[in-house]
Structures are given as structure tokens and as C-alpha cells.
């Protein structure tokens, strides 16, 4: 059976910009796997830190990246995305079987000027989604450090410019992504935004106590707003022990889907793979393994209607409610 799979997060653009080939998101394999696209992150990289190999871990927040430098690199990342064989999304009608449609997503808003003077220019160039922070501080908010076990309550919330950014995104119809924000930032956005709340690639803190994951209280806020959370396939955010073990079975992804359905209902659950940005279960491998994940959901009792909501309908509903 053909499906339509829309995904909340991948880092293919960064790998391509670095001259690296895809680890997970081989675009030539996308169509056969029913992958119709989703959020393509433009992420201005911080200096690499070694992946934590021991539990507990607590990686300090990396230093800020100055706006001018971030704007230059983000421009190169956008050009890299534009050179990929993908269609850029301007409305949900752009998603169609047999092609890959990319939502231009800034993961960390350093490239946006503090006075927001270039935000509309970015919109005109196709920007339709923005994570206020990656896991570092910037002119708008702070971001959550990578730590396990840890809550996300690690620092301050939105700055004045950050609050202005949320209002401007609401006005323009740019999705505001809560993944990588800390606790205070999450609740500041929840209190301000008039759009459905979205975390594009975050898992359940009740099942894996990583700082990046969301508590049940946060999940209920997403549900009450009509929003959606993309389940992240990164093994360190899936497993109860937080270990980076590629032998993690697909049932660990299903476990987070089940928890989300129990906490929020099936209308608020989607995929947020983190392909090409994280270690995912080797049983999945990459985009070609998506049908195996859908089979695992089916085996766990999800019917075709529920699977369609998780694979694409929930994303399309939220994008339609957010975009202008
Ligand atoms: Zn991320």
C-alpha cells in the first residue's frame, strides 16, 4: 500500500554543505519509501563536541554565533537546499506523492537580525518554519543543553526580541518550533503564540529523561493548542537508559508514539526523524526503512486512518492552520 510520509526534521542540507553524502536521507530512495518530504533544517553548526558515551552526561551550551556570521552561513545553507532535487513548500498543496517537498526551516534563528529587519526577506526566500534556538543561546532565547538525566529547566526564557519574533512569525505565517528550547522558553512561546504549538523532533521525557524531551505537561499544552509533536528517531532520545546504541529496536519508536497517543490523542503525533543529524536504529537504517516503521505501527494495532494521521495528515492540518 502506498503511503505519504511527511517528516519533522532532517539535517541533509548540513551534510551536503559540508560535502558529505547522505547517511540516512538518500533522496533517490525517497519515492520508493513513500517519503514525501518535510522540514529541511538550515543549521549553522557549533564546533563539534564528542557524542557523550557515558551516562550521566551534561554537555555545556556552546558559545553564541554572531548574527553576521550566522546570516552568511545560513545563506549558503539555503543555496545548498535550493540545489537539491526537491520542491520548496509554500503551501500544503505542494506535497504530492512521487516527489520530495522541503519546508525551509531555520534551526536556531541567529540568522535573523535582532530587530527582525530581514525576517520578511527570509520569508520571501521561502522560510516557512523557524526554531527560535538550537541548543545554544542567541539574541532571542537560550536553548536547552544536552544532558541526561535532566529536566529542560536550565535557564532563562525569551528575550524582548524573542517575544517580538514569535509575534512576527504568527503574523507572517512562519511556524515556530519548540524543539531545542528550554522549559522557560517553551512556556513563553506557549503563552504568546496564536498558532498551534509544534515540536518538530522531540520525544517523551517520561520514557527517556533527556533534557531535549518533553514532559507530559508540555505535551498537554501542545494538544490543547491543536498542535503536533514529531517523534525523534535518535536513539539517545528514545531509550530509557539514554545510551547511543544503534541496536535499539523499532519498538522503541512505537513506545514513544504510544505514549504520545495516550497523552495527547492520535491527532497530535507525527514523525520527526532527525535523519542525517543523529544515530537512529540500524533496523531502520534511513529513509528506505520507513515502510518497516509503518509496519511496526500496524503490528502494534494502529489502523490505516491512525497511520495516515501520524505519517502526514497531522502535519498537513497544523501547517494549514499556521501558514498564510
Ligand atoms: Zn535538532
Short description:
The protein has 324 residues and is α/β, with parallel strands linked by helices. The protein contains ten helices and eleven strands. The strands form three sheets. Strands 1, 2, 4, 5, 6 and 8 form a six-stranded parallel β-sheet that branches.
Please give a structural write-up.
The chain has 324 residues and is an alpha/beta fold. It has one domain: TIM Barrel (Alpha-Beta Barrel), CATH 3.20.20.140. The protein is 33% helix and 14% strand. The protein is built from 10 helices and 11 strands. Zinc ion binds next to loops. Zinc ion binds at residues 107, 179-180, 201, 277.
Mean pLDDT: 97
The structure class reads alpha/beta
- Give the number of domains: 1
**Strand percent estimate:** 5-15%
Largest β-sheet summary: 6 strands, parallel
What's the oligomerization state?
single chain
Which stretches are low in confidence, meaning pLDDT under 50 for 5 or more residues running? none
Morphology: globular
Helix content percent band: 25-40%
CATH superfamily: Metal-dependent hydrolases
CATH architecture: Alpha-Beta Barrel
What is the CATH class designation?
A: Alpha Beta
> What is the count of β-strands?
11
Amino acid at each position: 500500500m502506498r503511503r505519504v510520509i511527511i517528516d519533522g526534521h532532517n539535517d541533509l542540507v548540513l551534510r551536503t554543505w559540508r560535502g558529505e553524502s547522505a547517511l540516512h536521507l538518500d533522496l533517490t530512495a525517497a519515492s520508493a519509501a513513500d517519503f514525501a518530504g518535510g522540514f529541511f533544517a538550515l543549521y549553522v553548526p557549533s564546533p563539534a563536541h564528542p557524542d557523550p558515551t557515558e551516562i550521566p552526561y551534561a554537555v555545556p551550551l556552546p558559545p553564541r554565533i554572531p548574527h553576521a556570521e550566522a546570516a552568511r552561513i545560513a545563506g549558503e545553507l539555503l543555496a545548498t537546499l535550493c540545489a537539491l532535487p526537491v520542491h520548496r513548500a509554500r503551501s500544503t498543496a505542494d506535497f504530492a506523492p512521487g516527489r520530495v517537498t522541503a519546508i525551509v526551516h531555520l534551526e536556531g534563528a541567529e540568522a535573523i537580525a535582532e530587530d527582525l529587519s530581514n525576517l520578511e526577506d527570509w520569508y520571501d526566500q521561502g522560510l516557512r518554519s523557524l526554531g527560535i534556538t538550537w541548543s545554544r543561546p542567541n539574541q532571542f532565547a537560550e536553548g536547552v543543553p544536552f544532558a541526561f538525566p535532566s529536566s529542560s529547566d536550565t535557564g532563562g526564557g525569551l528575550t524582548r526580541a524573542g517575544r517580538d519574533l514569535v509575534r512576527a512569525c504568527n503574523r507572517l505565517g512562519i511556524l515556530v518550533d519548540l524543539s531545542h528550547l528550554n522549559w522557560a522558553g517553551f512556556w513563553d512561546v506557549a503563552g504568546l503564540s496564536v498558532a498551534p504549538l509544534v515540536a518538530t523532533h522531540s520525544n517523551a521525557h517520561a520514557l527517556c529523561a533527556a533534557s531535549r524531551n518533553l514532559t507530559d505537561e508540555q505535551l498537554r499544552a501542545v494538544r490543547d493548542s491543536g498542535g503536533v509533536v514529531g517523534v525523534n528517531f535518535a536513539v539517545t532520545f528514545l531509550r530509557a537508559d539514554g545510551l547511543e546504541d544503534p541496536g535499539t529496536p523499532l519498538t522503541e519508536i512505537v513506545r514513544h508514539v504510544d505514549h504520545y497517543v495516550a497523552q495527547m490523542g492520535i491527532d497530535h503525533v507525527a514523525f520527526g526523524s532527525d535523519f542525517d543529524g543523529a544515530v537512529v536504529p540500524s533496523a531502520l537504517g534511513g529513509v528506505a526503512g520507513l515502510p518497516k516503521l509503518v509496519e511496526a505501527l500496524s503490528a502494534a494495532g494502529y489502523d490505516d486512518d491512525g497511520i495516515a494521521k501520524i505519517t502526514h495528515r497531522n502535519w498537513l492540518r497544523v501547517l494549514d492552520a499556521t501558514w498564510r
